Amino acid sequence: MSTPAILAVILATVAAMEGVAWVSHKYIMHGFGWAWHRDHHEPHDGMLEKNDLFALVGAAMSISMFAAGSPMIRGAAAWEPGTWIGLGVLLYGIIYTLVHDGLVHQRWFRWVPRHGYAKRLVQAHKLHHATIGKEGGVSFGFVLARDPVKLRAELKAQREAGIAMVREALAE
Description:
Layout: H1 3-32, H2 34-37, H3 53-69, H4 71-74, H5 80-104, H6 116-128, E1 131-132, H7 148-160, E2 165-166
Antiparallel strand pairs: 1-2
Helix pairs in contact: 1-5, 3-5, 5-6, 6-7
């Protein structure tokens, strides 16, 4: 593969992973995977959460693609794009770790953004955590964040429709 093609595959994979993450968060983590994800929405003192097991799923996806693209593992059957897709999944995982775990939940460093897109990301994710339980909710992505004013209005509509139970601080 040419260098531009490799870069295109890596960047397309990183972009596609935000869609994969959104769908996984909304329909798996807030669906049948709630047993792993619940502790992420509840107060706790531990450094690790059951929710961190989802990182192993992402790692398995990346490793599988690296293996599919590896001539050392697959020989002549190696599929070269697999290597670059695996790298894109890995890069998304790093971005996720820095943005979600680091910036939003401040697990790795302390910095509260006062303006710009970083502030918008934090606000959107805090609105995601405004619901009690797995029903309803907004902002299921991790890197792309919608306007917090629109998210707040959507949460209000969900509360009024009986879809979501919203924490007291945001009920008004």
